[in-house]
Amino acid sequence: MKFLPSLLALGAMFDASLAAPSSSLEPRACTTPKVRKNWASATTAEKSAYINAVKCLTTKPSKLGKSHKLYDDFVWVHATLFQQIHNVAAFLPWHRYFLTLYETSLRQCGYTGNMMYWDWVADSAKPSKAKVFDPTTGFGGNGNTTSTVWGTNCVLTGPFSKSSGFTLRYWNDEVRPHCLLRVFEPGYPEYNITEMYGDNYSPSVMAQVNAETTFDGFSNYLENVPHAAVHSGVGNLNGDMGPQSSSPNDPLFFLHHTQVDRLWYLWQRANPGARTFAYGGYKWPDYTPAGLDDLMPMGGLGANVTVRTMMDVNASNLCYKY
Ligand SMILES: *[C@@H]1O[C@H](CO)[C@@H](O)[C@H](O)[C@H]1NC(C)=O
Ligand SMILES: *[C@@H]1O[C@H](CO)[C@@H](O)[C@H](O)[C@H]1NC(C)=O
Ligand SMILES: *[C@@H]1O[C@H](CO)[C@@H](O)[C@H](O)[C@H]1NC(C)=O
Ligand SMILES: *[C@@H]1O[C@H](CO)[C@@H](O)[C@H](O)[C@H]1NC(C)=O
Ligand SMILES: [Cu+2]
Questions:
Q1: Which atom of ligand 3 is nearest to the CA of 192?
Q2: Which residues form the signal peptide (predicted)?
Q3: Residues 12-61: pLDDT tens digits?
Q4: Which of 144, 145, 154, 181 gets mutated to test ligand 2 (max ligand atoms within 8 A of its CB)?
Q5: Could you tell me if the CB of 3 is within 6 A of ligand 3?
Q6: Which of 108, 141, 217, 239 could form a disulfide with 133 if both were Cys (CB 3.0 to 4.6 A apart)?
């Protein structure tokens, strides 16, 4: 293998010759980060622009060349990669990347705003009253909970209601067309179960999550307690937001995950020197230690990128703030 060093040297020279001195090839600095807003404080016009762009995704062709719409690409990729991206170190950076690809698709549908988040910590005492569930300016409310048969709990109000004609193609990774399904957890005070499991994402729980000082500790706590409780609280077993690999079926998924991303960002910013590139835990499929140079698969929705590229939201490829 004597030839290796010289080949590597040649490669380096070749790279140097490609890097033209023109400053136009330099990545642009992130001088004006895009601001991701709280849904609850967005204007009615901003909310309707966002919702119209989501509906537009359901009319555009698949980027994966599949016989479903662009919206379904996001559901499909999340469902098929599910085990690779949950309960592993890449949970937070993978979903950060997924959100940016979704935001790019919304912009291709004419949306000029940024992703918005649902601050469920603020709404944890009475989640069902959250503005995201508003029947006219939000994502509609609960499903019809008359029956417990799968497929009957259709959302009755708002832009994604059954009567709006909004339909979804997948349930987990199977083709099972259905209306948008939600089954809010009603809460059972006698069993200490709060409405939509809100006590799992209260300010006091979030204070405990934020007190974690390692990436691994923070990520696992955030994923398994507040993040999981919001999924179950909105969807339960028969709703799209429940513990389903197809949970991006519910357009609220993306506001939920923008909040998860924001909580990570706030944790990073609480100690940027130590935490911006703090990463650790285990990776799929062998559960060996994870690292910043691990590649994250995106199922063809975007290039496979390293974890490192998703750590700093102030880098030119992300360039946003909360
Ligand atoms: C973000 O990047 C810009 C340009 O590189 C820099 O001026 C600014 O200080 C950075 N902000 C933070 C919060 O790191
Ligand atoms: C709710 O579901 C029940 C049973 O599936 C059905 O009979 C009823 O018409 C539904 N209600 C509405 C408002 O769609
Ligand atoms: C509910 O919580 C209270 C206070 O923590 C506790 O005393 C009670 O035993 C709990 N009830 C049930 C059914 O778990
Ligand atoms: C991305 O990674 C997956 C495996 O994780 C691989 O099958 C696929 O070919 C890669 N795609 C690209 C464009 O490199
Ligand atoms: Cu997920």
A1: 1
A2: 1-19
A3: 333 333 333 444 555 679 999 999 999 999 999 999 999 999 999 999 99
A4: 144
A5: no
A6: 141
